[in-house]
Amino acid sequence: MDHDEKTMSLNERSTLLPNFLEDPNKKHLIDGQWVASMSEERIDTFNPATGAVLATLSRGRTQDIDRAVQVARRAFEGPWRLFTPAARQQVIMRFAELFEKHFDELTLLESLDMGAPLHKRLRAGKSGIIQTILYFAAQARNIGGALPHNSLAGNVTTMIIQAPVGVVGAIIPWNGPLFSQMHVLGPVLATGCTAVIKPAEDASLAILRTAELLLEAGLPPGVVNVVTGLGVEAGAALAAHPDVNRLAFTGSTQVGREIIKASAGNMKRLQLELGGKSPDIVFADADLEKAVPGVAMGVYSNSGQICFAGTRIFVQRGIQEEFLDQLASYSKTLKVGNPLEEDTVLGPLISQRQLDRVLGYVRTGQDEGASLVAGGSRMGGDLAEGYYLEPTLFGQVTNAMTVAREEIFGPVASVIPFGTVEEALRLANDTPYGLASGVWSSNVNTVMRMVHGIQAGTVWVNCYGLIDPAVGFGGYKESGYGWKGGESQIDGYLYQKAAYINGSNV
Ligand code: NAP
Ligand code: MG
């Protein structure tokens, strides 16, 4: 079967394809133009809900990355330089308007491409994603320098000047690219940098469409370029490129290590948002009516394909059995199904490979002695063609078991008992990761001990998964470095320059 036949069969089955997929053979967006790979090679991208080919992507390699980086460099030194902060802010605001106008189309594209529930997840996140863009629009006007005092003899004026770092490379994962890309686009546009984006091969479509909207918003061609392809080819070429000044990488800790090595050549600045194995800690004095659904969605949301998923659920002895029962019952109420249906809570996993990997962890959990309390199987019936897995819950887990150590990236939760506050803290911190955490308690002393003691970039108290662009997000330990959002993120996109102006002879 050639590409056209395969994509046609899906087109025939769906009446809902966005216009963007009228031509399902996608190209790179470089210098404001759709261009094929120099090699003309293509790769398929799938709809994980059906397993069918959704579109084909251009397979970018080193020469395509080179071309895009050259274009981004030219744009950085060209007309984009002349945009004042106010003009950059206006482009971002126009982009926010267009993004809102096309939100239904973009979320449909994303849902078809990577399987997230259209209504309960993607469209429910509308305000958050638009507020993120608008936050960076405001940041564009806040970039300045400083005139620090000095202790120098004479009449020396000292200045700190800030300037955009230049060309930014961005490597984005598949688990939520529509949202994820904003944390690169925002600071790039606010500071006056330019970008080459390499989306994940499994979910590139919403990023391509967003780049097209940026042009419509008035962004000069070449400021944001998208090169699709494989991580080991296009991604690695971008990470190693000698003319990229900064690389923003979101993905696994394992690939993060490769990125650090690849970046050494020209010492490019790095922002690494990596994996996690986050603890969600329930104390006996917690309000269980809130804690049960909160903890469940902390792990099952996006079918567990979230970096900050609270997969290690520590429950205080005394309520342990009751909590496990309630969590199991709640997980069975969550609808697993076609991501386009209104009431679907869990869509498919991204790929057969990911499903196999997650099922492998389910087997390992059982082999190591954990008890499977709920789920654990691939869905059958109408859902048999897609990569669907039931929400899965393990009891009798210890923090030393593989399911409690390694990032699974699927809807698999482990309940681990603890006794005292200090024991909870010790177990929570006993992990190489440090991305996020949750605490459920009505005791302010317990809450404060945990907030200060947990080694993770975020602590959610009596809630899980809230994110705000003004606050930001980042990791401790092997979950990476560099803060995403907040005022300090902008600093990473700026060079600082000190000027000493000797005015004594003037
Ligand atoms: P991944 O395998 O590390 O891939 C992430 C991105 O890197 C993809 O675009 C991938 O391209 C590319 N890539 C793969 N190998 C590469 C290489 N050698 N050089 C350069 N780029 C390369 O991660 P994933 O499975 O897509 O995403 C899940 C991971 O992301 C999880 O570990 C999750 O925790 C993490 N994540 C972290 C955050 C955070 O904010 N901390 C947010 C979201 C996700 P291809 O896919 O095309 O190969
Ligand atoms: Mg896909």
Per CATH, the superfamily of the largest domain is: Aldehyde Dehydrogenase, Chain A, domain 1
Number of strands: 19
Instruction: Indicate the CATH architecture of the largest domain.
Output: 3-Layer(aba) Sandwich
Strand count, sense and barrel status of the largest sheet are: 7 strands, mixed
- Oligomeric state of this protein: single chain
Strand order of the largest sheet: 13-14-15-12-11-16-17
CATH topology assignment of the largest domain:
Aldehyde Dehydrogenase, Chain A, domain 1
Instruction: Kindly provide the radius of gyration, computed on alpha-carbon positions and rounded to a whole number of angstroms.
Output: 24 Å
- What small molecules does this complex bind? NADP nicotinamide-adenine-dinucleotide phosphate, magnesium ion
Counted by DSSP, the helix tally is: 18
List low-pLDDT spans: 1-13
Mean pLDDT across the residues is 95
Shape label: globular
Can you tell me the CATH class of the largest domain? Alpha Beta
How many angstroms separate the termini? 78 Å
| Total of domains | 2
The structural class is alpha/beta
In helices, the fraction of residues equals: 25-40%
User: What fraction of residues sit in β-strands?
Assistant: 15-25%
